[in-house]
Amino acid sequence: MVSGISLGSFYTLIALGFALIFGVTRNFNLAHGELLVLAGYVAYWLWNVYALPFVFTFPVAILTLLLVCLGLQRLFARLSEPLELNSIVLSFGVAIVIQNSMLFLFSGNYRLIRIPSLNQGIRFHSFYMSYGQLTLLLLSLIIIFLLYIIMYRTYLGKALRATIQNKEAAALAGINVAVMGKLSFCIGAVLIGLAGPLYGCIHYLYPSTGHEATLLAITITIFAGVGRLSGIILAGWIFGLAESFTVIFFGASWREMVAAVLLLTLLTFKPHGILGEKL
Amino acid sequence: MKLWQIHVKTGLEIFTMENLPKNHRIIFLWFIRYLCIIFCVLFLAFWSNTSSAEIIKIGEINPLSGRLAKNGIEIHQGIEVAVAEANEAGGVNGKQLRLISRDDQSQPDVAISRAEELCSWEKVAALTGGYVDSLVGPIAAVAKKYQIPYVASASLQKELVQHENLYFFRVSRLQGFVEPLCGILAEHFKPQHLAILHAATPGSTELARDLEHCFKIHGLKVQLIEKFRPGMPDFTPLIAKLAAMKIDVIVSGGFTPDHILLVRQLKENKVSPKAYIGPFGIAYESFIRTMGKDANYLYSTCAWHPGITEPGTEATSKAFVQKFHQMFNRQPNTTNMHGYTSARALIAAMRTVLHNGQPLTGDNIRIALTKLDLILPMEHLAFEKNGDPLHYRHMVVQIQKERLVVVYPSDRAAAQPIYPTPSWDQR
Questions:
Q1: Does one domain contain both B271 and B407?
Q2: Which end of chain A is more exposed for a tag (fewer CB within 10 A), N or C?
Q3: Domain that holds residue A84
Q4: Could you tell me the mean pLDDT of each successive run of 10 residues in chain B, 427 residues long?
Q5: Looking at beta carbons, which residues of chain B come within 8 Å of A200?
Q6: Mutate to test the interface with B, among A110, A212, A216 (most CBs of B within 10 A)
Q7: Chain A residues touching B258 at Cβ < 8 A
């Protein structure tokens, strides 16, 4: 149970940036995973070369990702309709460029940010949770909470949600959808910048692991329902728990199969995502 | 007379280009111009091919990008060292070697097209390289089609040597892993509760099957065999299962990233098996650097390592390490050595062919390979009829004080295995 929730929280962190950018701009960013790994490499580099404490790697990773994502946003902004399709082609190319740049800069060795304290944990009778799992859980909850506040308690959030629901109508209502697009990329960059260093710590870093993260982000976003950020955490947990129970009761080889069946079932009966009706 | 004034006879009528609309004339002139350029390029390419008669071309296909890039690049570097060594020593019977490298991007379909290109267009004398069976298999099939010998650098799947492909050879085989692993478990560890985890790849699956069979023969019962996809993001549920079954020894046929995650999560969940054995991907300096002290006490297998070499080849091994360091500014590893060994086999076979005054054809190289008997740092290299290496055998190593130490077989062992492994709390 603990491992399922922790894994689900990990999935949530990976998917959040993708879901937000896709929701607002309709740009299908296939380079999402590569950006995540890039943030991880930035953190690894600072931690390994400059012995910077792990916590302080986050601001630098976020700043780097902000710069990269704003550059990416300028590229996406030049695309014409159909946006989804064109953005797939563009971001696929960007993913290859980032992947090969990382291979050149950081070599093909597997990298891991080793934080010994995350291997400790708390035990209560038969319940055990490592600090790593706890961090993932708390961080995903805090981020979701903060995103909820931004999206549902501020004018900015209202404008972002309006853009997600109907871009043309939002523009007619006086919302600057171009600025909303930039903002979504900025928030997305912050989310990726937060998830990346944790990815290097919980998972491992390798230039081509990004596409796995991208696939995961796409799956979770579809499962949650496009534009439904609150559904992301639920979707992440459902996937995490389903995968964990599958490994325990049926075996590790059934993991992907169960995840695929889960997604297909949902798309058949609830095509707008786990949280229900169309936006 | 201008070009468009040429009279063209179509069979039905005679007309001049002058009568054509202007845009058609422009198109015609562009067409002629590009035709000339293409002709010149083809002529130059043909000329460069024929002028390189004193050069022997060796084709090499490896995953230099994509998910297997790390291993592919390592194989490639080993091959480069072998070629550089041969060229510095005056080449093969006075002819210099030219290595033509291609990247299969870790994808079988790309591997096929690269192999086709090397065999049909580049007309290489032989092929080498290749990492994992899913990429080696397609290259072997193309080599057979063009009757060009292919010495694979890293391949294990038994099926690949069962196709009666006379042109396929490899420097590694699965039995080289199975025998020492089975030996150390049966002779030293004798575990009560044993688990085999394996990646969903042909080599790893076959290893699991062969190990189970061998353990059965030696009276060891395997409690759990579990397959997982390489790159699985979380092993915690599997670890819970292993802990519940009180597993003593874990043999994990995953690769480097799987070991990184699995060992880290074993530590995180305070699960301490008596031995953790990862035949693939652990016996590397880079792995030890990544894992730090957590790498200690892990077992793996290793065919070669600087300092661990076939008896009698110490000087060759040292020369390889020096040359490699000179070229790439780092210590080589066992994957580099696999690339080096496969290229050395090819070069030796070519040397034999030319020494005998025969033309360097695919069949002559193939025959020379079948008769090869070469003592190299990684193995005493001679091929069976099916292309498998006769003497390829790994040693079991354990990481002790962040160094690789041979612990099995006893005639090669430098230290006793530390068994059982201390629990995470006791380290």
A1: yes
A2: N
A3: 2-112+132-269
A4: 49 54 70 74 57 79 88 94 94 92 92 93 93 91 94 91 90 92 92 91 88 92 89 85 91 90 88 93 90 93 90 91 94 94 95 93 94 93 93 94 92 90 88
A5: none
A6: A110
A7: none
